[in-house]
Design brief:
This protein is mostly helical and 226 residues long. It is built from 10 helices and no strands. Helix 4 crosses helix 5, helix 4 packs across helix 6 and helix 6 runs antiparallel to helix 7. The longest helix has 33 residues.
Length: 226
């Protein structure tokens, strides 16, 4: 059975989107080529900058009611689901505003139909968020790795620390629902970033007991998980 957002997407696409050879969004090849010229702090975005760049068409404002909410409160379940799907729709549709209303109506109807459907759509929304976070983290990690040698030692370690914190947050969100094998694989993937965030030359062994009392929480947390 298709999820409600996919059904709405298919229905609206057939009605309103003209035939075109490709609906894929064009990708810029210049992003990575120019990244080495950026300031070392480029990986640290403000929340406003992230939201503005991520939603150029104002889709999120249409899809959900409150931009800041406590997702653990029952009255915020539906707005949080709409918020999660609003992040996903632009990735699959060339003109996402065309399906915004039918998608919102379909999700709302599905959410209200039964407790089982409500739980299912909430879970799907959270899976979408985790997938998007992982994709963004992989992109940021690739960019950091490509320019690390052009940064000063202190700047490189600070940026690695920011990335490590994001990876640990992502792992913490996935730990309750993913297999132990997946979590171990994620920890293995982030190990180079952990090493870059540690004090001292990156080619020397790490004294792990010393990191357990390190003032940086992300370093202590990674060692504990490992």
């Amino acid at each position: 059975m298709l999820n409600p957002a996919t059904q709405a997407s298919n229905e609206a696409s057939c009605k309103s989107i003209p035939s075109t050879p490709s609906l894929a969004k064009p990708q810029s090849n210049s992003a990575l080529s120019s990244v080495a010229h950026l300031d070392p702090s480029f990986l640290v975005f403000s929340k406003d900058e992230e939201e503005r760049d991520d939603d150029p068409e104002g889709l999120k404002e249409v899809m959900w009611v409150s931009p800041a909410m406590d997702i653990s409160a029952p009255h915020n379940y539906l707005p949080s689901v709409l918020q999660n799907f609003a992040r996903w729709v632009p990735l699959i549709m060339f003109e996402p505003l065309r399906i915004t209303d039918p998608t919102k109506q379909r999700i709302t109807s599905y959410f209200s139909s039964s407790d089982a459907n409500r739980a299912r759509i909430i879970l799907i929304g959270r899976v979408i968020v985790v997938s998007l976070l992982r994709a963004n983290l992989n992109r940021e990690t690739e960019i950091y790795t490509s320019i690390r040698h052009s940064l000063g030692p202190d700047a490189a370690r600070i940026q690695a620390g920011h990335l490590l914190t994001k990876h640990l947050e992502n792992i913490t969100m996935q730990a309750p629902v993913y297999s132990l094998h997946t979590i171990i694989r994620l920890l293995h993937h982030v190990t180079p970033i952990f090493r870059y965030a540690c004090p001292g030359p990156p080619d020397l062994p790490i004294y792990l007991p010393g990191l357990l009392v390190d003032p940086e929480f992300n370093l202590r947390h990674f060692v504990s998980l490992d």
